[in-house]
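Title: Comparing notes on inverse folding

I've been comparing how different people in this forum approach sequence design from structure. To keep things fair, I'm posting one structure and asking everyone to reply with a full sequence. Here's the target:
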């Protein structure tokens, strides 16, 4: 796998990233970074689960080393394509943490 840069944007209070969720996985994991900068994340929850956003937030909080209160799914609550806000963490810091996992 080649090391790719992906696009995060600094917001007023943190960073935002696009996430494409793949449900029904054996474990939670970041699979890859797509060409447009979107993260593909596998989650061990059913596709129709109402808790999929909570599982995603918990997993990203663990990966990024932040409290779950700093992770917010701001768009795509019922879609597989989501926009996630990471409060009080800038885009370069999020990028570094994600690349440590993907590499």
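Reply #1:
Here's my take.
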């Amino acid at each position: 796998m080649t090391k790719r840069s992906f696009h995060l944007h600094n917001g007023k209070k943190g960073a935002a990233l696009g996430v494409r969720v793949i449900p029904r996985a054996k474990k939670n994991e970041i699979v890859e970074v797509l060409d447009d900068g979107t993260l593909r994340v596998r989650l061990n929850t059913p596709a129709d689960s109402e808790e999929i956003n909570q599982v995603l937030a918990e997993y990203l909080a663990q990966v990024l080393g932040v409290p779950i209160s700093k992770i917010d799914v701001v768009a795509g609550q019922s879609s597989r394509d989501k926009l996630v806000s990471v409060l009080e963490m800038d885009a370069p810091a999020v990028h570094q943490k994600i690349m440590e996992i993907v590499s």
